[in-house]
Amino acid sequence: MSRFFAANYDYESGSSSSEEDLLSSSEDELLTSSGGEGEESDDSLFQEDSESESDVDSDDSDGKPYGPDWFKKPEFRKGGPSGGNKFLKGASYSDSDESDDEGKKVVKSAKEKLLDDMQTVYNKVESAEMTNDWVTILSEFDIISRLLIRAQQQNYGTPNIFVKVLAQFEDAVNATSQQEIKSKAASRAYNTTKQRVKKLARENEQLLEKFRENPEAFDKEPSAELDTSITEGSVPLFGKKSINLSSVASASSEAGFFSALRIVIDSRGKKNVDYSALIKTLEELMEIAKTPYETIMAYLNLVPIRFDVSANLSYQPVDQWKASYQDIMKLLSILEENIEKYQLSELAPKNDFIEDEPEDDEHGVKHILGSIFSFVERLDDEFNKSLLNTDPHSSDYLVRLRDEQSVYNLILRTQLYLEATLPEECRESHLARPFVKRLDHIYYKSTKLISIMESNAWKSVPSTSSSNFIPYKGDADEQYVTELVQTLAESLRQQKSGGLRKRAILYQVYFTAFNNNFGAAKEMLINSKIQSHINNSDPSLQILFNRVVVQLGLAAFKLCLIEDCHQVLNELLASSHLREILGQQTLQRISANVGSSSTADEREQLCLPYHKHINLDLIDLVFMTCSLLIEVPQMTAFYSGIKVKRVPYSQKSIRRALEHYDKSSFQGPPESLRDHVLHAAKSMQKGNWAKSIEFLRSVPTWSLLPNADYVLDNLAERVQVESLKTYFFTYKRFYSNISIERFSELFNLPEARVLEVLESVINEYDINAKLNEEKTFVTVEKGEEITKLEEVALKLNKEVKIAKERLNPSSARR
């Protein structure tokens, strides 16, 4: 039967042994029957009407059958030149007098094709051996090795033709000496072929001995098949197929282990692969591994397959993540135990044949190609993904967050291993990735939390491990933490990558600002000049820069530097998308806004786990409080006729809130955070500083500040001073002399402090007022100040102009 019509045809394995030919036996009978005009058809059903039908058909000039039932005509069933056997014979049929046997096309099974490919290798090697072309011989050896793997995957065992080809390679190597080869390329190919043939011959020693005893009898024997029965230990790899890899791996020699491992490696990435079966097989292989090299190779393939299982998921499930973590820890332990003999390195040369251990270097160390830190990075990425996909307000998030310490321990341990194994000339450049990861886990924490993390991390590493970059003396105090961040950042600044340098600077600035060193952090950021070209950086760096700016403003506020805080935060808070520019939106919201065109990695770059967020209510409260202390006195001075410098304000400034509040028809009691600050501003305008402080202290968000009591105490004094300024600007037009003692009683300030504030205000705004000789009164001279009635009239005139422009926009333009 043709495979086109076979509903259950297996495309992976090709045609089975029972369907080696495309045509069935009944079809063969039809094709081999003679199509001559004088012969009668074997089908007796149509013989009665054959004569009449031939008379009808004779009207056709070319003798071809026609009509709606033309396929029922005897001419179609016959094998003549005008008959319908072309349909049965396919494209190979021609109108010439060639025989049917020559025109018939034979389709081979997958096993036959594979054996033919091996025979082709045998013929090519035989030709290349005559010309001493060892480059071709090496190439054909690689081909025959891949064909053997394919045979084992397809459950064909070890074909006899493979043993024959292997004996041919062995004879060719033994019949040639190194001195006979003149070309360098051929000499290298000869040496490589000699080593690989020796290895493969040792693995198939019994079959080679059997072949050499009697080659003719060996060819007639069936191939050595694998045990394909599904018994205990056998695992399905490709759809319905199953291979008992554990039985292969349990061979007495190391050949069985690597044969099974090679099958697993080649199976990875193919369609319909059962990854759980691959994992189970690798776990069984590690149990029977006899050397550290075998165990290392098994782990190097097990960890990526564990990650492949969840490649199509939003994040790796917790149980699989913990299994990957344990595998990486075990691999690292084996590498640390055998560090004097085996070392895993990204700088090691590629080894095409996993069966061959790498050659020793001058120190007797074998370098295996691989990257232990790539596994750690992937593990950390999956950890962040799981946090992003977990409800941050649930207990599951807190439970999951506990694993951060385990990830940090692994990062530190991997860094120490790389320090011990990397060459000194390229050590610092290759340690950049662990340094970035360490900073990424600690830059947003306080020194106390970092001290706890560092102490626990150093307890998890072997006692013999040490770091040349950041020596640990057994105590992670505040000085150690500061030096740690500084050393890591300085090392990253030496890298060629501009992204690493920027990220290192921003990490250090954030840490410095978060730990209340505003002056050093501000100077560091200005000297770096990152702000001049941050718009051309990638989104993750822009988000980090915005976070640094916010943290810088909060650091200034913690030190009660109100003007600096307002200046830093004013431009950033002018944006209406503060949550987005700080990377504090959810993954679902990012996916809806960005669209499906962006990849999952790009969307995750725009989002930070919840425990890294900066509280948005705290940012709003700090900025509005700064705006209250700066803008309320200036607004009062402006409306009293004093020329003041206009301060730019954002959407969240207290000035805009007051304008909206004055226009509203109903003013209720304060409910939200913004309402409390607004009522504090209204109280300040009336000179009621005590009520203003009461409104500010009643906001519960202040508890998020680590030094909330210190900040609120200093804030109260600043509110008293600004209330004094506001009262002076408001009521100076109504008095000619104002008592200093009275001001001191009203605002609960010492008289010396009152005198200092009034003198600074008079000099700054050039007010027509002066103190008497005893400095007990302030004498206000009448000048160009407007009265309260004139102030109201000016406001009313301004509103009239705005109304006219809205009613007659065309006349206003003219």
Give the low-confidence spans: 1-64, 75-103, 225-253
Structural domain tally: 4
Instruction: Work out the strand percent.
Output: under 5%
| Shape call | elongated
Portion of residues within helices: 55-70%
**Estimated radius of gyration:** 43 Å
Biggest β-sheet, characterized?
3 strands, antiparallel
Quote the distance from N terminus to C terminus. 90 Å
Subunit structure: Component of the eukaryotic translation initiation factor 3 (eIF-3) complex.
InterPro entries: EIF3C, EIF3C_N_dom, PCI_dom, WH_DNA-bd_sf
Subcellular location: Cytoplasm
Protein name: Eukaryotic translation initiation factor 3 subunit C
Comma- or semicolon-separated keywords:
7 strands, three-stranded antiparallel β-sheet, disordered N terminus, mainly alpha, 814 residues
Task: Tell me what you see in this structure.
Pfam families: eIF-3c_N, PCI. By secondary structure, the chain is mostly helical. The chain has four domains: 81 residues, no CATH class; 115 residues, no CATH class; 209 residues, no CATH class; 167 residues, Arc Repressor Mutant, subunit A (Orthogonal Bundle), CATH 1.10.10.10. Helix content is 59%, strand content 3%. The protein has 39 helices and seven strands. A three-stranded antiparallel sheet has the order 5-7-6. Helix 21 crosses helix 23. The longest helix has 24 residues. The N terminus is likely disordered.
